[in-house]
Specification:
Distance between the termini: 40 Å
CATH class of the largest domain: Alpha Beta
Largest sheet: 5 strands, parallel
Number of helices: 13
CATH architecture of the largest domain: 3-Layer(aba) Sandwich
Shape: globular
Low-confidence stretches: 1-7
Strand content: 15-25%
Oligomer: single chain
Strand order of the largest sheet: 2-5-8-1-9
CATH topology of the largest domain: Rossmann fold
């Protein structure tokens, strides 16, 4: 078991090595999920079905000894199926709260973009305020609390875009790609050999909470803050900020929550890289995941065949690094 002095240098490596016993590949996704966990930021994972999104999230909770629950989002799902409801007790003749599956440390919102907007709104208070209101009473969610949501690409049948307000609640939007040929070969071998490795729990909740406190203490220089503000301002008014290549490519830019998200995620990234300060490289490493769901490409950008990732890459190349 890891000691408190070791967690700073070994937490990332321990989680990776333990996850690798069950999940093949997806190393970048593992890193981004760890960033969300360490910075109290919810993550939205987008990828084709069958890329081990659910397995990865469930395994991460198991390694960190966190309470886990999975909610399958469907068109007939109701808000009460997430938050819970009030139930009448015949013995006491009173209504009592029956807490829903949201009351766990890690909640997997599976295929979140298959449920209607009314259900999406049920997550907003929980994700932002870490509390749920039932029958006029506010119930605090457990600490830590993290929503890891998966969604299929929007082009697939039966899906639709999440409301912008809810997308902004996610710290990161992580894109999953297909495994390499060798990785897929190993997946098939594991399936053929019926391998289902039991994971140990090398990290306690107390150690995780200590690590989160250390992440918040990662030093952020004022020049880094100015760099983040330059990036965010350039998404809103690119020409005014001297980024003429982005003229007409964005319908709207990132909100102030985007600035905060860049700093929080960069602190966690620096921590994982065993550094006590945030560098411009940390900002660049997580910029795509922080911004891709906070920016809206214009029709002109789509007509030119530019993706949101292309636009963010241009943004990072054009804004001067301190």
């Amino acid at each position: 078991m890891m000691t408190n002095t070791q967690i700073n240098t070994q937490l990332s490596q321990t989680i990776r090595e333990t996850l690798a016993k069950r999940v093949v590949g997806q190393e970048d996704t593992v890193t981004k999920c760890m960033i969300g966990l360490l910075s109290d930021g919810h993550c939205l994972l987008e990828g084709m079905p069958g890329l081990a999104k659910t397995l990865l999230i469930k395994s991460l909770a198991e390694i960190c000894q966190l309470k886990f629950n999975r909610i399958q989002f469907t068109p007939d799902l109701l808000p009460a199926d997430i938050t819970g409801t009030m139930i009448f007790n015949k013995q006491t003749h009173t209504f009592e709260p029956s807490l829903g599956p949201i009351f766990n440390n890690i909640v997997l919102a599976d295929e979140i973009n298959r449920a209607p907007a009314k259900v999406q709104s049920a997550l907003l208070e929980a994700m932002q305020e870490q509390q749920v209101s039932l029958g006029g009473t506010t119930h605090q969610l457990p600490e830590p609390f993290l929503v890891l949501a998966t969604q299929n690409p929007i082009e697939q049948e039966g899906t639709y875009t999440l409301p912008e307000a809810q997308q902004d609640r996610f710290l990161l939007k992580i894109e999953l790609n297909y495994p390499s040929r060798e990785e897929e070969k190993q997946i098939i071998k594991n399936l053929h050999q019926n391998k289902k490795t039991a994971l140990t729990s090398p990290i306690t909740i107390e150690q995780l909470q200590d690590a989160k406190k250390e992440v918040k203490n990662i030093y952020v220089d004022e020049k880094i803050i100015d760099y983040v503000l330059d990036l965010i301002q350039a998404t809103r008014e690119p020409e005014k900020n001297g980024i003429h290549k982005l003229k007409g490519l964005l319908n709207y830019g990132a909100s102030p929550r985007g600035s905060e998200a860049l700093i929080k995620a960069a602190q966690a990234h620096a921590y994982i890289r065993n550094r006590q300060f945030v560098s411009p490289e940390d900002i660049k490493a997580i910029a795509h995941d922080v911004l891709r769901h906070r920016l809206a490409p214009s029709f002109e950008a789509e007509a030119e065949g530019l993706t949101i990732n292309d636009i963010i890459t241009t943004l990072l190349n054009e804004v001067q690094v301190p």
